Amino acid sequence: MTLSFKPMTTTRFVVEVEDIDLSKPVDGASVAALRKAINEHSILVFRGQTIDNDQHIAFSRNFGDLEIHTVKQYLLPDYPEIIALANRGENGTTPIDNGGAYWHTDISYKAKPPMGSLLYSLEVPPEGGDTLFADMYAAYDALDDDMKDRIEGVRAVHGYAARFSQMGEGGKRPTLSAEQLAEVPEVTHPVVRINRETGRRALYVNEGFTQGIEGMPMVESRTLVDTLNAHATQPDFVYDHRWRVGDLVFWDNRAVMHCATAYDTSYPRRMHRTTIQGDMPIA
Ligand SMILES: [Fe+2]
Question: What is the mean pLDDT of residues 224-243?
Fold first, then answer.
């Protein structure tokens, strides 16, 4: 199998991977090429795929062990590795209209946040329900030297509980149990994160889960986080993915943040996500 990578942005941020059928086992050389590609590009788009749950999980495992999400209400009953983002629910999962309608990096509130996420679309509305992605390497590179100096060696506090309680989803969101809360204590991560394999530097804060800067007064800390988020989400750094049924998008959580857009919820929308475990962010 020889893969080809077609650019989807004017930068190297997003590529479409062609000539691959994810319902079949992927050979070792192709896995190596995809691992290299995710470091190089941050987002890999596979279109026109037809895969079942086992195939989604098998493909994802090529890139590491899979994460089981804290909010068990969204996990497919027979496939806890898959979180169902389905506005009608699926096999008894709790319906969710749009879980990520704010800029975030998946599960950055854990000490070892996931390396990547693989989201597969099964049903999409005619418009909206896009996923926006921000290139956090480009965002870091474009900071001025004063800001780069200011955030060097600085750590941010990340947490889930505050964000989860704000989301509400019109009363659809379950509350977190004491046991679930215990799984997600606050953690700190470097604001400038280095990819261990390539040495590239990415900005690593997000609107959703970054609560502030360690050791900085609250107002100053909030202003800095807001400034960095506003910087990173400028159109120059953002790719808008308009979903088609059969798209699978694999993104690098070390290098991007993302945000879901609104849509008319009278249409069904159903997506499946697997999440690849990651390592401790380093500065
Ligand atoms: Fe997300």
Answer: 97
Q: What pLDDT is stored for residue 38 in this prediction?
A: 97
Our answer to whether residue 56 is catalytic in this structure is no
How far is ligand 1, taken at its centre, from the CA of residue 181, in Å?
19
Catalytic site residue from 173, 254, 258, 269: 258
Residue with tokens 């590609």: 37
Cα of 104 to ligand 1 centre, how many Å? 6
Beta-bridge mates of residue 194? 201, 282
> Mean of the pLDDT values across residues 236-247?
98
For residues 156 and 212, the answer to whether their CB atoms sit within 8 Å is yes
Per-residue confidence (pLDDT) for residue 36, from 0 to 100: 96
Closest CA to 203 of 240, 157, 241, 257: 257
CA proximity to 103, closest of 214, 272, 221, 261 = 261
* Ligand 1 centroid from CA 119, angstroms: 9
Q: What is the CATH topology of the domain spanning 4-276?
A: Double-stranded beta-helix (3.60.130)
Q: Are 171 and 259 in contact (CB under 8 A)?
A: no
How many angstroms separate the CA atoms of 42 and 40, rounded? 6
Is 201 catalytic? The answer is: no
* Predicted TM-score (pTM) of this structure: 0.93
Q: Where are the domains of the chain?
A: 4-276
Residue type present at position 50: T
